[in-house]
Amino acid sequence: MRLVLFGATGFAGGRILREATARGHEVVPVARGIGSEGRAGSLHDEPFALDVTAGADVVVVAIPARPLDDGTRLIDALPTLYSLARKQNARLGFVGGAGSLRVSDGGPRVIDTPEFPEAYKPEAGSHAEVLDALREAPEDVDWFYVSPAAVFGAHSPGERTGAYRTGGDVLVTDENGNSAIGGDDYAIAFLDEIERPAHRRTRFTVAY
């Protein structure tokens, strides 16, 4: 398949790029300062976004949701994403956040718990808004949104195991109550969904 990957230089985006390439997919890496190894540009530049996604089967969005230095937010780009998804007949895949997951059935969201770090709230809250907006997307837009476990990112990259479990809107934990997923295994789950769609127009989460 042909994948266009916005945010290819980030933690999740870089691992998705590597996993997709290893599986033999054609990947167009996109980032603002990517250089000659990809296409430099922004999802917020609609003519560029439409051009770079020409022929895409899947458009992967792995960029921050919080306001950037220029004031742009991921949620502001959703109309452009819907437009290009229709034009290219492409599926949209989002690298999401864990903050909008529930700690248990009927329980509070992770972001609303007392122990959630204040410094992470702008990104987590912005991602929750993106997810809410996606759930109201026009019915002809095919999308999926993958929330990682609570522990995920460059501070805890983990080791590749090839194993993961999936869940819906509730945080997935192990027998000790821990919730974690390594970067490579998150990418494996993401590519598995691209190759064998099982979550259409919905969010799912992955963890060990």
From TrEMBL:
InterPro entries attached to this UniProt entry: NAD(P)-bd_dom_sf, Polyketide_Oxido-like
Record's protein name: NAD(P)H-binding protein
Organism: Saccharopolyspora taberi
